[in-house]
Sequence to fold (305 residues):
Amino acid sequence: MKNKKIEGHLSMLAGRTFGGLNSNALKYLLPLWISPLCCVAYRLVFGAIVFWIIGFFIKNEPKVTIRTKIEMFLLGLFGLYAYMMFYMWGLSHTTPVSSSIIMAMIPIWVFIILLCFRKERFDFQKGLGLFLGLCGACVNIFTKKGAQYADDPMLGDLLTVVSTLVYSGYLILSHNYLKKAGVFTVTKWTFLGGAVGAVFAVLFLGYDVKLFERPFHWLPILILGFVLIFATVLSYLLLPIGLKYLKTTAVAMYGYWVVVVSTIVALIAGQDSFSWSILISIGMLCTGIYLVEKSEGGLSSKMTH
Fold:
């Protein structure tokens, strides 16, 4: 079991690293090269195709009922699609750093939801860690000034907050389905549901993609390739492994690692500028990670024993 926990932690570390780079890549693409609506469609359709192809070669997954398949499809339609839509819509108006810091609020919503349903225990240390994470996100939101790196940071931040709420519910429900279905079964059905919703949205609201217009600009095309392959397929393949072997709250805590990766890349790429508020926000978030992980036994102790 200890080896399974190590596998879960390593999977989350790699997947969340791709997640951090994903926000920087998407910020480069949105909305100049591709609209948020179309970008969501590309990600979900590409992911659904890949996961269904892989699923044909996976023979050892548990059999599930038609009702369960429909429920997972609806989870993708209303959960996964809504999360991606609000996230990309928000990111198109704010900076990758702000977006990543707000995404780190996910453990707070997960903890509150599980606490309401008496699925999670409360202790002072974990509560303090989650509180510091919330404070870190608030410091970032309310100290952001100007529009040098984003056209409407407040709107973008609020939309990202909505995405965290949706994703928190998706995490919890996905964890429940993994108990009776395999990783690929859950992933392919949720992505199929999300893809169907995304395609209908594009059909009704319009197709807006400029990166394939001539003359071709290879850099945005390559960046979109990274988003589709690494940040979508590999990231979502690794996430269920973490959900299967780790507690939901511990998985959500890895959202903080996204902040570190995204911030470093954003500062190097000129997508944001350094400020003490960013440093304070990240410091609070990292402290929150330490307190929550220590409350659950500690990440380092789980990986070394």
